[in-house]
Amino acid sequence: MQYAKHLIFIFLLIGTLAVNSASRSLVESPNISPNPLRVGEKLTYDISWKKIPAARRTDWIVKEESLNGEAVYHIQSKMKTRALFRVYSFQRQEETYLNPITLSPVRFRNQLQDQKYRATVTVDFREETAEYEKISRPKPKSPEKREAKVIEIPVGTQDELSTLYFLRSKKFELGKTYFFPIIAKGKVQKVTLTVERREVVKSKALGAVKTLVLRTSAGDRFWLTDDERRLPVKAESKIGQLTVKVTLTDIESTN
Question: Cα angle vertex 229, ends 161, 211, to 5°?
Fold first, then answer.
């Protein structure tokens, strides 16, 4: 499960160290204008270890619709290990329903397969609570396990997929550290991010592009284009001495 853990959280970049007094709430920070999120945007990423193709991920803003009386973006993400990567078989399908004004999720669902292990997580977000349910099965013939609970959540709590779009929609100041809450592993955690520097990077999908480099308290990094698109260009995370790299390889518009 160690490799799967990093595949799951490679775009969350969770740093669970204590938030210091100099940190700012990203929930309370202003949004950028115009909103960089566009219906039909589909982004494809390659994930690798030591230049070995490990997995491919696709994130897609499918459509705008209504859920529980709220206007939301329906967003999907799919990730699956590549044929050349034989350490283990892993795939995941996520979807979130994100309010484009408040940048808060309304509903989240994650279907995970790691070797023979199967799990489905559903989170329904309310005003001050979230209804969390996890149904898992260690092996195909094992008894099904069910965990259900109500979690108290701060305003602006994100899920594992909405986090990416929440970050893209926020203003950042160079050198500042921000924090925001997220539900991960069945509980509320705090993500801390420092805007480390500006950097020009070469992207297969975009060419040479100016980026903002965000670093977590855990030392992982995440590159966003420093323009009105705020596209995630790449991310890096360490597993021991190995570095997991995520790179944007293709941009499509399905609208």
Answer: 90
pLDDT one-digit tens code per residue, 4-39: 444 444 555 544 444 455 789 999 999 999 999 999
Cα gap 187→201, rounded to integer Å: 35
The amino acid occupying position 172 is F
Q: Is the pTM of this model over 0.70?
A: yes
- Evaluate whether 119 touches 135 at the Cβ level (below 8 Å): yes
Single-letter code of the amino acid located at 45:
Y
pLDDT tens digits for range 160-217? 999 999 999 999 999 999 999 999 889 998 888 999 999 999 998 999 999 999 998 7
